[in-house]
Every structure is written in C-alpha cells, then in structure tokens.
Amino acid sequence: MPELPEVEHAARALARATSGARIVRAKVLHPYVGRNLRKTSLRRLVGRAIARVERRGKHQLAMLDDGSMLHVHFRMTGDWVVSSREQELPRFARFVLELENGARIVLADPRALSTVEVLEPGASLATMLGPDAVSEQFDAAHLRTALARRRIAIKPALLDQSVVAGIGNIYAAEALWLARIDPRVPASRLGARDVERLVRAIRRVLSRGRDGSGRYTTAGSARLNVYDREAKRCPRCGTSIARIVQAARSTYWCPGCQVNPALRATRP
DNA sequence: AGGAGCCTGCGC
DNA sequence: GCGCAGGCTCCT
C-alpha cells in the first residue's frame, strides 16, 4: 500500500510497536525481498534496539542503537502486520522481526516486491530523493526549479522521486486533476501559477486519501476523482475520463477540464 | 524516452 | 486463460 500517506501510517505503526524494544530475531521469508541483503547483515540486528523510525518519501528507516539502519521499501503491495509471537504468521509474510517485548512485526506482501536491507552506520540511501512531498522544503520555488529543464511530461516527472519524494501513480493523477493540468504537458512548460496550484493540489491530495485504517481503495472510493475511473464522468465537468499510458504507467485524466497551460495562454 | 522485468493475485 | 496492478531499476 505504497503511497506516502499509507507509508507514513505504516512507519508510525512500526514506531509504536517497536519503540525502544530490542530485536531478538530477524528473518527473511522470501528470497526476493532480501535481494539487497548481505548474508550476515540480518544477524547484526539481533540484540539491537530500535531507537526511532523515520520516513523519507516512501522509504522507511528504523534507526538502531548502534547507528545502523533497517531500510524497508514496500513497493506496490507491502504492509506491516503487528501481532505477537504466539500468533500465526499472516498470509504473504515475507519478513519477520521479533522483539523482546513479545511483539512480532511482519512485512506482508503478496507480490514480494518489497525490499529489506541493513545499512551500516553512516551509510545513506542509495536513491536520490528530492524533498519530501509533505515537508516545507517542497514548495513552488523548488518544484519550478526541478522541472525547469525537464522535457518529459509533467505526470511522469511527478513520479520521479528525485524531483519530489513520495508521490505515486494514483496521487499524481489526482493532483493534476485538482490543479486542472493536462498530464501530457512538458514539465518545463508549466508557468509559475500552474506550479503553485500543483503544489497546493499535491498537499491536499496527500492529506486525504486515507480511511481510518490507513489504507486506500480504488474502486468504490468517493475520494478518487479520476484514478481507475476510465469512461466515467468527471465529477467537475462531466466529461468522460480518459486513460492513457505514460512511461508504461496508466494515467487517468479529464480531457474536458485539465488543460494544457500553453494553450490556455494563447486562448484567454 | 520507452520497455522489460521483478513476483503474485485478482478480475474479466 | 490473459492482462493488469499502487514502484522502481536497469537496459536498449
């Protein structure tokens, strides 16, 4: 369940379940999930306490008391299941952490695309991340600069985690709809006012998008205005919602009210 | 810039 | 069956 609000929720759940507790066991149950792990590094976790948990974009970092870090990425379908050691493992359990307080934290992921790795003290994430989408560092000035020389369309640009960290496919579409921007517009063609609207739209979209459990849904959700709604009516203008493919990902958008800013300028 | 691929389940 | 999926990396 991999968009930023969901990862934030998951990271908090992890923090709550672990807070200060020592790890007594750490085990990968699916080889693909541990593909970035060196054979011995999981054992280094045993005996360490989890001091705190941070989220950076959609990455989770559990900071251990010796300065090393447990780095987890849910990709498409990962999630934490918190229970106790006596309970049965949940379906799709791919990685298990057991704590001396009796808690058991399981990474459940049907597709097993999640990754778990241990970073040495002082190491940093291998990926370049832009400012977090819900941080103050992410503002119109930053986004404008980051997009200035990009010739790719704005929608795939928003998915580029080095531009801004934490936006996924669903909320990229939803934010562009809110800001009334055509997803196909070259990123560098957005004007200052478009970028400002877009930043506000991103903030709004990321501040909703969750039900009480921290999950989101697609079909049947009143919150999603365009995503997964091909051929349905745009809630704003009634036009039939379109689906296109950009950078091999689905983009849903409204051809009626999401306009190309360049065209808007020539037709006042 | 575009596509394949990773792995598995689900809906048609 | 087949095609699709909320992400990301790596390759042409």
Question: Key terms for this structure?
Answer:
268 residues, N-terminal domain of MutM-like DNA repair proteins, Helicase, Ruva Protein, domain 3, 4-stranded antiparallel beta sheet, DNA-binding
Low-confidence stretches: 211-222
Supply the number of helical segments: 6
* Overall outline: elongated
Taking strands numbered 1, 2, ... along the chain, how are they ordered across the largest sheet? 1-6-7-5
Helix content: 10-25%
Whole-number radius of gyration?
20 Å
CATH class group of the largest domain: Mainly Alpha
What name does CATH use for the topology of the largest domain? Helicase, Ruva Protein, domain 3
**What's the architecture of the largest domain, going by CATH?**
Orthogonal Bundle
Distance between the termini: 42 Å
Largest sheet: 4 strands, antiparallel
Question: Strand portion, in percent?
Answer: 15-25%
The residue-averaged pLDDT reads 91
Instruction: Give the tally of structural domains.
Output: 2
How many DSSP E strands?
10
